[in-house]
Design a protein that fits this description.
Elements (H helix, E strand, L loop, with lengths): L19 H41 L15 H10 L21 H9 L5 H12 L5 E7 L3 E6 L5 E5 L14
Antiparallel strand pairs: 1-2, 2-3
Helix pairs in contact: 1-2
Length: 177
């Protein structure tokens, strides 16, 4: 069907053989996407709209004005990562989250406690490393579109090479992530 003149089974019908690192990247990307959806559903069920609103107010601490939470916010990417991995209802304050057992517990930690044994080991490792890593901001130093980029942590000044095919197509040198 492609017009090459070769037999279908030797051309378009041949199974694609991808390098192991590409297959590992695809598996990790799929797990991260699935994890984000599952974690957010869990957080909304456990912490409720009140928790999301409380986290948004704490995240923005007036800097974003009186903007109500919106999934259309240009800050949503940073906020959701912070909400899932760093925010927890104040154990000593007046939190709107009714379940006192969740006070002082990040949504990702609560998710791991409840569902950890049933998660894919790679997904569990990913969540645990997100909880251990400090939140930081990185400047894009180099971009190799379709392959990855080099970042410099603006807090620690450590440079990291990131293999990420999809994002490397849309970011530019100088962007802050």
């Amino acid at each position: 069907p492609c017009g090459s003149g070769r037999k279908f089974k030797h051309c378009c019908g041949a199974p694609s053989v991808e390098p192991p690192e590409v297959l590992a990247w695809r598996r990790m990307r799929r797990l991260i996407d699935e994890n984000n959806e599952q974690l957010h559903r869990f957080a909304m069920n456990a912490y409720g709209e009140q928790g999301l609103t409380e986290a948004w107010q704490e995240f923005s601490f007036g800097a974003l004005g009186e903007l109500p939470f919106s999934f259309d916010s240009p800050h949503i990417g940073v906020f959701m990562s912070w909400f899932h991995n760093f925010w927890s209802p104040d154990p000593y304050g007046d939190s709107a989250v009714r379940d006192k057992a969740l006070h002082g517990v990040e949504p990702a930690s609560a998710y791991l406690l409840q569902r950890g044994p049933r998660l894919d080991p790679l997904q569990r490792d990913y969540l645990e490393s997100c909880l251990e890593a400090p939140l930081s901001f990185h400047r894009v130093l180099e971009v190799d579109a379709g392959k990855g980029f080099v970042l410099k942590d603006l807090v620690t000044h450590v440079e990291r090479t990131v293999a990420e095919r999809h994002a490397s197509e849309s970011i530019q040198v100088g962007d802050v992530l």
